[in-house]
Amino acid sequence: MIKLWVYIGTCLLVALAPGPDNCFVLAQAAAFGAPAGFAVTAGLMSGLCVHIAAATLGAAALLHRFPRFADGIAAVGALYLIWVAIGMWGGGLEPQAAEARSLFGFYLKGIILNLSNPKVILFFLAFLPRFLPEGCTRRTAWLCLLGGLFMVSAFVVMGMIALLGGLLSAGLQAMPSAAQWLSRCAAGAVGAIAVWILVPLVRMWCFRKG
C-alpha cells in the first residue's frame, strides 16, 4: 500500500513537471477558453490509453531490443513539437481564429501531442513496470491499474491547468500584447523541449556514422 501511495505521488509530480502537455493545455485554454483546454486534456487522456495498452503488450521489451525504434519515436515527437511551437508562435489570438477551431480539433492535437511525448513514452515503458508488486502474477491487471491511476492524476492536474487558463482567457482577450507574449513564451518552451530531445539523438547519430 505504501508503494502505491509513492506511485501516486510520483504520478502527480510527473504531471506537474514542465512539459509540452501541460504547457500546451495552458496556452490553448488561455487563448481560446477553458473548453479548448479540456478538449486538449481529453485528447491527452485518450493518448494515455494507447500508452497503457502498449505497456501491457510488452512494448518495453520491443524497444529494448530495437533501441533505434525508440530513437525514431522520440525524433518524430520532437519534430511534431517544433511544428506545434511554430503554430503557437504565429497563431494569434483573434476571435476569428478562435471561432475557426473546433473542440474536436483541439482533441486530436491532444492525442497526437501525447503519443509523441517522449516523457510519457519513457514513463510507461521504462518506469511504470518498476512499480509492479514483487512476484506479480497478474501483470496486465496491475499495469492497467497503475496506468489508470496515472490517468486520474494527470486529469486532475491538466484539468486545473485548463481552469486556470480559462480564468486568464477573458483578461488576455482584452490585452492582445499580453496574450501574444504568453503564446510566444509557451511556444518557446515547447520548442526548447523539442531541441533538448533532438540534440542527444543527433549526437548519437553522428557518433554511429563516425
List the helices and strands and how they pair.
Elements: H1 2-16, H2 20-32, H3 34-56, H4 59-65, H5 67-90, H6 95-99, H7 103-115, H8 118-127, H9 139-173, H10 176-209
Helix pairs in contact: 1-9, 2-3, 2-7, 2-9, 2-10, 3-7, 3-8, 3-9, 4-5, 5-10
Question: How would you characterize the overall build of this protein?
Answer:
The chain is mostly helical. Helices cover 85% and strands 0% of the residues. The protein has 10 helices and no strands. It has helices spanning 2-16, 20-32, 34-56, 59-65, 67-90, 95-99, 103-115, 118-127, 139-173, 176-209. The relative contact order is 0.21. The model is unreliable at 93-100 (pLDDT under 50).
State the main characteristics.
mainly alpha; globular; 0% strand; 10 helices
Summarize the structure.
With 210 residues, this protein is an all-alpha fold. The chain has helices at residues 2-16, 20-32, 34-56, 59-65, 67-90, 95-99, 103-115, 118-127, 139-173, 176-209.
